[in-house]
Queue: 3 jobs
Job 1
Amino acid sequence: MRIAVVADVHANLEAFQAVLAHAAAAGGVAEVWSLGDIVGYGPDPAACIALLHTYAYVSIAGNHDYAATGVIGTEDFNPLAAEAARWTATQLSLEDQLWLSNLSAVHIEGEFTLAHGSLNDPVWDYLVSAEGARDHLGHQTTPYGLVGHSHLPLLFTEGQTRLQEALLGDGEDVTMGSRRFVANPGSVGQPRDGDPRAAYGLLDTEQRQLGFHRVPYDIELTQAKMRAGGLSDYLAQRLEEGR
Ligand code: ZN
């Protein structure tokens, strides 16, 4: 089975459509797995939820999903993120709000454990260090893990003596072999590794591979919608810089 693994879509419909089109062109997918933060920051929260719902999907919650629906407060958000969360709340139907607020923070699907942050703190932890990954893997009961939140395409693999850590680029693959790992496919809707192209993962459970991909999309269209909708110019600007 082939699965598109998406994290941090952040209400960016053009980026979400672009990665799904890329996955379709690469042979299509049976499911889409969302690792949280499908909403927040971007201009199309309802349309991104609707697009996910056109697929067989698995979804967990991110901090922005919970903040937009009042499950958590925005005290720990920076001012722009908090403002975006309030804006997002105004764009969601009651049905979408219920769906988001009922998402669980951790989910096990076959050989994979899915969490937005990490198993150290599913909603808030940024899994960006070997030390954090070691703690996470200590809690991970499945061979493989998938996380989001940092918006960085990262891979932490257990070695015989030490943990290997890598920032992965377009077209790189990781094999589902004997070594346990936790991977972040990068962010679909707001990449922060200096590459503004949408990032996602293509999982093939028969080939036993997780591929990392980058896909260009119409950034200017997303930015125009953000500005027209009254979202902050800084949030629009950062999309073209990939930071
Ligand atoms: Zn995010």
Note: The chain has one domain: 2-228.
Job 2
Amino acid sequence: MSKLQIVDHPLVQHKLTLMRDKATPSDQFRRLLREISALLCYEVTRELALEDVEIETPVATMVGRRIAGKKIVFAPILRAGMGFLDGLLDLVPTARVAHIGLYRDPETLDAVEYYFKAPPDLGARLVVVVDPMLATGHTAVAAVDRLKAYGATNLRFMCLLAAQEGVKEFQARHPDVPAWTAALDERLNEHGYIVPGLGDAGDRMFGTK
Ligand code: URA
């Protein structure tokens, strides 16, 4: 089974509570999502391999360390995943970005793809799939299926909120993909929304409801 890590850092938990509050307006919601995404990214990238590099400081020659290998790929699932992207690129500005357009069919809650664009050499890179909400798990599973079919072999998944049901589904379908979340909520309601959750992340970000 893949590992689920809950990032319980006080800054993350504080910001998440502000985001859950229905009185928080879209501009603050977006800013908080960007800030939390950088904090989550710090954890998701904690174990990246480093390599030695010789450099010259103004005073002496030394061996420093830098991240080894090819540049990371961030893969936001449209549209709510875009809310994570700026915070991720603040921390890793040289990363590549793969866009995955998936929506949930409101009747079946199945994921339907409408857009896919990724760098061609995914097999040589770490791919971090990002979506604020892991609800049924269908969308996250479909995104990882698609990226694997395109060649990705080293993947991680990052979300803000997860429901038990979605985690179970994701771990069963992609046991090789570790996941990070800020909180694990109780359950889904009959419309597939996380309870207590924060509502529709895309609508909260873009003020579409
Ligand atoms: N997507 C959302 O935006 N919110 C949920 O609660 C579940 C899926």
Note: Residues 121 and 151 are 7 Å apart (CA to CA).
Job 3
Amino acid sequence: MTRKITTLGGYFHEYEKSISNPSMFWNDNAESFYWRKKWKQTLDWDIEQARIKWFVDGKLNITENIFERQLFTRKDQPAIIWESNNPEEPNKSFTYKKLYKETCKFANILRQMGIRKGDRVAIYLPMIPELVISMLACARIGAIHSVIFAGFSSRSISDRIQDAEAKLVITADGGYRGTKTIPLKEYVDNALETCPSVEKLILIERTGEKVNLKKGRDYLYSNLRQNIPGENHAEEMDSEDPLFILYTSGSTGKPKGILHTCGGYMVYTAYTFSNVFQYSEGDTFFCTADIGWITGHSYIVYGPLLNGATVLMYEGIPTYPTPSRFWEIIEKHKVNQFYTAPTAIRALMSLGLKHLDGKDISTLKVLGTVGEPINESAWHWYHTNVGKNKCPIVDTWWQTETGGVSISPLASITPTKPSYATLPIPGIQPTLIDSDGKEIVGKSKKGLLCIKYPWPGIARTIWKDHERYKETYFKFKNLYFTGDGAKRDEEGYYRIIGRIDDVINVSGHRLGTAEIENAINENHIISESAVIGYPHEIKGEGICAFVVVQQGYNINKDDLIQNIIVSVSNIIGPIAKPDKVYVVNELPKTRSGKIVRRILKLIVKGEKENFGDISTLVNPKIITELLNIIE
Ligand code: WT7
């Protein structure tokens, strides 16, 4: 496997090697994988064009590294243990051998349905084992999976399918979330009305509800599986062939199809999983993320399985049937590493300690968080009550674009500090810059977080839009720009402050304010809107919308607000629902017509007087008007 760091001295030593000779460092870490053909050059890049290639001309299949490479030793070891939303339903266990067979079957079905290397397959599934199996099946035959989070609505599904020009969709009749059943197939049916590229659909039965099957397009997985062999010859992939696309929000209205490739992503997720969580043989690792986000891709599916780990996958939500559910799962399956989001911790914290009473969670060794900054009180609650003051917390900073954890403590190795992501993973060279792109040197500094040199897990492009990739991530000379602000303290530890672009982070979900504004503006009586994030006790950030109504409309404000909330939920998905909507006469603008969101943010935060420089506003009186409305 990749080299495992076991001491702080070891970390500094490896880090030093990774900086002084990155190619040699990653060359060594890549060697333990199974390559059909070895690479000719470890790294080839051209920063001007933002072209990055790792393990050039190497040939491999990532699923061969999960299965064939490990089957000999692990065939009867559980790879995935799946826990249902419903605590009464028995859990399912997939050994490496069984997961291999299921993957091969699914891969054979995909091939039979005409899917070939390079084709895009959209996957819109709840957290059921078939989600993992279908991703691996795509990887097996070289199809590019594009997983769409099952909380997105028809419009978001359609946008993503159209952008990727997916040929086939894999979905389910429905999904369970706590007491709710989500009609996934219905959403997909609506979406597919505007997706001409889709030829076929595979339907997995989960809830058993009645769904429409379109003749010649839709096929039941349970039928397709009949008489399909459980073996499949893996497609030979180039290191730089695409592995998957995952859409994420940016500062414009259009989501970005982040593209990851086979070789580098494999090496990086495997390396970070093993080192950050200090997973040891026989441990059970539980990541609560949905696979619809990068966390699930990298730390439920690829990272752990490449390490031969046993992963716990949970279908439901933290509070169903009670807020003890996570702790019950940990007790039942003797979980050793637990990886979740600050928002979940804050929600459970607000419900009180009684839900932990009598739950034996003493098997826990490592706790992790991801997705947003963790505030100190949540950190301490987690450390004391879940970790019983003995488990290190790894506050892992990374992004869809970085592929894997990039700044984080290594569990039990790096001394932690509440709310600090601490030190970079070997291979990651963080730096802070000012708004002119000038590097800020020295300790105790704040700035925009950038990364200096490529690492194997970096996204290679935005699907069909390399220009946007270049402009977004490489706008500062020779640096990858993260979009986050950060602080570096006296010890060189990094603390992430949050996004500095028009992206908000709601419960660890990334949403572009422009996307939400576009959805609001679809209502023809709205002339314009401005969406901002504001501090929210549980969600981290809440969504606040200011809307201006077209002249000449006489509206009932409460109805309008309700309408806006429902339509955003229908257009994007329930995660994007505004928490607050204010109907205003006017938005604060500069003479050139740019909305001054800074003012709106201050007002929503409760600021009454100090608005800084307001000389750029066309109509400074607007502040008083806005303050009155918010009262
Ligand atoms: C953004 C990336 C990486 C998987 C989940 C989110 C924020 C992520 C942390 C952390 C503070 C964090 C950043 C980043 N973020 N982890 N430990 N501390 N902020 O992936 O949807 O691509 O979002 O999430 O703002 O840029 P994503």
Note: The chain has a mean pLDDT of 96.
